[in-house]
Design brief:
The chain is of the alpha+beta class and 327 residues long. Helix content is 38%, strand content 20%. The two termini are 26 Å apart.
Length: 327
């Protein structure tokens, strides 16, 4: 199966609530979507949903969208496709020829567990008020179904992806134009020849779960900034700081990745971890600057004159952001 050349990121408020908060099951949970409007979601059963799970869902939707387009445009009779965890990982990383260890791969088993759990998760979105506010007609005020239209094939590590069924969260986000569309090469970060003939070396970072999440978080934030229609202007990306909304909670991209200070035995171990992640972030951003996607960025720790190890605070995006389709 071919890996799609376009990756879709769901950026709607519902999916953000799911990976940032624990939402109770069997209740109408209210979510504010701006302009004083409220929508409701309901979960049949509680389920784990981290930012990593969100990336898995984005990848499966990207595959679903590509395969569905192929089915409709080429008039194929095939209404489902067989997918593997390796193909999902290839889509998540942008690396078409990615391989997982033979035998018991921890990464493979993790993906299988996530895909199985989300294939059983039921979600309903009740958004009639928002529909009226946006003057949307011809669609249902309730969108419901399984989080992922997949089913594991008994006795195998493969799944059947149903192209007839939609993904509720993605049907909703697409309808209100809250999907981010990026070329897969922005995730792959391979070698590139610029117009002046200069050769840009590929990004040399292994596709660990952490690196994959960092790429997705950075691209999501950068694309939100680039698209002026979002009305998003915060160029600061901070790593780990006390939440302004919830007492006792930490926010920032490390917290989003479930990387927290309390999980480390000493201050030096935590400091080393932050430093390692910061170096990876800088390598990713250096690559995006080199290919002309970003004009520049600033290390906030250096700007504020902190001691290097204590100055791992975050970065600021600086200057122009180009359309990745034109790079």
């Amino acid at each position: 199966m071919k890996i799609p050349t376009i990756f879709y990121m769901n950026n709607c408020k519902i999916i953000q609530e799911l990976y940032k908060k624990d939402i109770p099951a069997m209740e109408r949970y209210a979510i504010s979507v701006g302009n004083g409007k409220i929508i409701y979601i309901a979960l049949k059963n509680p389920f784990s949903f981290s930012y990593y799970e969100k990336i898995v869902c984005d990848a499966l939707y990207s595959i679903w969208q590509y395969q569905r387009y192929e089915m409709l445009t080429k008039e194929r009779k095939q209404e489902s496709v067989i997918i593997t965890p390796t193909q999902v990982l290839a889509c998540m990383s942008g690396k078409k020829n990615i391989r997982m260890r033979q035998g018991n791969s921890e990464k493979e088993e993790k993906l299988i567990e996530i895909m199985e759990n989300l294939s059983h998760a039921d979600l309903a979105i009740m958004w009639e008020e928002e529909m009226k506010d946006r003057h949307i007609e011809g669609v249902s005020p309730v969108i419901a179904g399984k989080m992922l239209p997949i089913q594991r094939i008994d006795g195998t590590k493969k799944f059947k992806l149903d192209l007839k069924r939609t993904l509720p969260l993605y049907e909703y986000a697409s309808t209100i134009h809250q999907m981010i569309r990026i070329p897969e090469r922005m995730l792959y970060c391979g070698p590139k020849i610029l117009e002046d003939g200069m050769r840009i070396s590929p990004l040399r970072l292994s596709n660990t779960d952490e690196v994959i999440q960092l790429k997705h978080i950075l691209l999501q934030r950068i694309e939100m900034l680039r698209n002026e229609k979002n009305g998003f202007h915060n160029r600061s990306i901070r790593y780990y700081y006390p939440s302004h909304k919830t007492s006792g909670k930490m926010d920032g991209i490390f917290s989003l990745m479930n990387i927290k200070e309390e999980n480390y035995n000493s201050a030096s171990a935590w400091s080393n971890k932050k430093q390692a992640l910061h170096k990876q972030i800088r390598k990713i951003l250096d690559y995006y600057c080199a290919i002309g996607y970003l004009e520049s960025y600033k290390d906030v720790g250096e700007i504020e004159g902190h001691i290097r190890r204590k100055g791992i605070i975050g970065i600021d995006i600086v200057g122009e952001i180009k359309n990745p389709d034109e790079i």
